[in-house]
Design a protein that fits this description.
2 domains, 11 strands, globular, N-terminal domain of MutM-like DNA repair proteins, 8 helices, Helicase, Ruva Protein, domain 3, five-stranded mixed beta sheet, alpha+beta
């Protein structure tokens, strides 16, 4: 599933490419991806509107329209927002579920092989309610060590599980929770409340740094993630934990362990240097 760095990359690409474009026509191929809007209502409210901004909230890509409506896309596992200037490969176009045809001749496709992602249309009030329970963005200046400490110190759950809770930290998923905990040298199964302030500070710095570095590398691609131009991210080669179970730890050389015991998701750790 695209996490913060991947959706941030998509949103930045779209903001640079389609801000100012006018939606001329909307074509819905598979209405089962729509949420909070019907095919007819999506066309009625989007056609004629100008795209004024594209940005990210948590793991969602948000497209602001001049009408104040917002197109909210959650790609989940196999979703991709792709800009088609007429050269998009037909193998990509065939999985288009919703297509926004722009007045300049381009098309913005939401492609999704498994159709597990969603496309919604919300007015500002509905959007505010939709995101009201989501935690602070970890790249926000207000996301301090003290803020993170306040979010985790009352929980008896494993620290990895807390980090992946969108109510605690926005946008973190399995990849970057694994990476942040490895960088901080913290066992993912540790009870969140047992972390000292020094450990929390290390974790805070690790989360922020790994997210920034992944954004700079345009995200992590294993199978499905692609940016708005259909290109793959380059951060996979920089991963030190996720996807490396059975391989040597880059810090101490011991073999990394993979387990599903913590939260049902793959957790990779070094039993020697993560405590």
């Amino acid at each position: 599933m695209p996490e913060l760095p991947e959706t941030e990359t998509i949103a930045r690409d779209l903001d640079a490419a389609v801000t100012g474009a006018v939606v001329e026509r909307v074509r819905v191929v598979h209405a089962d991806v729509l949420r909070e809007v019907t095919t007819r209502m999506l066309a009625k409210r989007a056609v004629g509107a100008t795209i004024t901004r594209c940005w990210r909230r948590a793991k969602m890509v948000v497209i602001d329209l001049s009408t104040s409506d917002r197109i909210v896309v959650q790609p989940r596992f196999t979703g991709a927002l792709l800009i088609d200037d007429g050269h998009l490969d037909e193998s990509e176009r065939r999985y288009s579920t919703v297509a926004f045809h722009l007045a300049d001749g381009r098309t913005l496709h939401y492609c999704d092989i498994r159709r597990l992602g969603t496309v919604s249309l919300m007015n500002p009030t509905r959007f505010a309610a939709h995101v009201s329970g989501i935690g602070m963005e970890p790249l926000d200046s207000a996301f301090t060590v003290e803020h993170l400490s306040a979010r985790i110190r009352g929980s008896r759950q494993a620290i990895k599980k807390v980090l992946m809770d969108q109510k605690a930290v926005a946008g973190l998923g399995n990849i970057y929770a694994n990476e942040g905990l490895w960088r901080a040298g913290i066992d993912p199964s540790r009870g969140a409340a047992t972390l000292t302030i020094a450990e929390t500070a290390r974790l805070h710095d690790a989360i922020v740094s790994v997210l920034r570095e992944s954004i700079a590398a345009r995200g992590t691609s294993f199978r499905d993630y692609r940016d708005a131009n259909g290109q793959r991210g380059n951060f996979a080669k920089q991963l030190r934990a996720y996807g490396r179970d059975g391989e040597p730890c880059h810090r101490c050389g011991h073999r990394l362990i993979g387990t599903h015991a913590i939260d049902g998701r793959m957790t990779v750790l070094c039993a020697n240097c993560q405590s």
